[in-house]
Every structure is written in structure tokens, then in C-alpha cells.
Amino acid sequence: MQITRETHLKIAFMMWGLVGTGLLIFGMNTLFGRSLSVLNADRTNPGMMEGIALSLALTVGFIKGNFVLKKLALKYTSRIHALPEMSPVYMTFAPKNWILVIGMITLGKIVRTFGASPLIIGGVYVAIGVALVLGSRTYLTGHQVRQAGA
Question: How far apart are CA 113 and CA 126, in angstroms?
Fold first, then answer.
């Protein structure tokens, strides 16, 4: 299926945003030990460690999303703009990006399998989720800046 460059950018935005939102929700569930949609009266209130982990995760996610992933998304945006006007949907991301995604999924499964603390797992997932959501904006704003500058 052939799609336009603009559609590639929208797909990249949606993928980063949806995956980031999913990781953020999963991280919060893991960090606080309950579903965000159901209050669990059996569970005690979150303690200071959960609050510190959440604060640290949000800070790291904010920094990574606005500085590291923004640069990466701009690089990917430039790559998409270099594609022909119509190209296959699978060209939204380069093969090495898909290999990185598979590696990150595998690493996450390994860490959970070896029994890392829910505090660590939740904090890492929240940080990555926030970073991806913030970084995803670049696919839309980077595209608008490119159009205005072109």
C-alpha cells in the first residue's frame, strides 16, 4: 500500500504516541499496584518511594522526550521527507528502527522475568512513556516547521 509523506509522519506520530501512552498507563499500574480505572480499597495508599519514583520518572521522561527523542524524531522526519512522494507504508521506519524496537521489547521481558521490583519497572515504563509522548509531537511540529521553511 502506497502512502504519502504526510501519512508517514502521521503514522509515526500515532505509533510513538500510542506506545508511549500504553507504557505510561502500564507503568502507573505497575508503580501503584492497581488499575487506574478501579480503586482498590485493599491496597494501602502509595508511599513515599512511589512518589519519589514517579517524580524521578516524570523528570527523566520530560528531559529525554524534549531533548533526546526530539532530535531522533527530527532525524526520522528528515528521512521521511527524503522518501518519494508515494511510498510503501512499511518505510515509515527504517529496518534498524524495527530491530531496536524488538530489542527493547525483549529487554523489557527479560527484566520482568528476572523479577525486578515493581518500583523500578513502573518508574522506567513511566519515564519511557512520557518521553515517547513528548517526542511524538515532533512528527507534527517538525512537519509544520518544514512546510513553513520550504
Answer: 19
Give the start-to-end residue ranges of the domains of the chain.
Answer: 2-35+48-149
What distance in Å separates the CA atoms of residue 64 and residue 71, rounded to the nearest whole number? 10
Per residue in 84-138, pLDDT (tens digit) is 999 999 999 999 888 988 998 998 889 888 888 888 999 999 999 999 999 999 9
C-alpha cell at 105: 521489547
Instruction: Show the DSSP H helices in 33-117 as ranges.
Output: 48-63, 69-81, 95-113
Report the predicted TM-score, pTM, of the whole model to 2 decimal places.
0.83
- Identity of the residue numbered 82: A
Q: Which residues contact 36 (CB under 8 A, 6 or more apart)?
A: 25, 28, 29
Terminal-residue alpha carbon distance, the chain: 27
Q: Which residue has the cell 521527507?
A: 81
